[in-house]
Amino acid sequence: MPAIVKQSPGFVDVEGKAVTLTDVSRALETFDSDQEAIKSQYNLLHGYLSKMKLLKARADRLERSDAVSKYIAEQNQKLANLLRIDRAPIDRLTSQNALLNAKILLSYHRRLERYHLFFVEGRAKASGATPPRVASSPSIGATPGA
Fold it and tell me: Tens digit of pLDDT for each residue in 127-146?
């Protein structure tokens, strides 16, 4: 079956909560401003997990206090600092599991890199001319300020 390829020159307006859209915008700006260092740290962490055969490993494979977990935690912190991510919520959700934390940070980077590519290629742009419209309810088509 042949693949479907979208070749539309059209556009899509994205609406959302202002705070969320601002967070996404800041994340993209951070990625754009320090892309080489971020990619280098991503490659280091990903390469280490791959070498240690931990990319597909279960979270309980490592002890929290062993040398491998401590090294991964150090690399996680470096990547999080470059991406300007507060790791506290991730640590709480993962019970401070370094391997789970690493997988979340690597996933975050991959998605951010993909979204960034849309802007670089001109397939997406943020319009400063129109202020963000924030719906007061989750219903589709809600009017701003309603």
Answer: 654 444 444 434 444 444 44
CA 84 to centroid of chain Cα atoms: 11
What are the tokens at 110?
Answer: 């991959």
pTM: 0.74
What string of H, E and C letters represents the secondary structure of the chain? CCCCCCCCCCCCCCCCCHHHHHHHHHHHHHHHHCHHHHHHHHHHHHHHHHHCCCCCCCHHHCCCCCHHHHHHHHHHHHHHHHHCCCCHHHHHHCCCCHHHHHHHHHHHHHHHHHHHHHHHCCCCCCCCCCCCCCECCCCCCCCECC
Lowest mean pLDDT among 23-27, 68-72, 109-113: 23-27
Domain ranges of the chain: 36-120
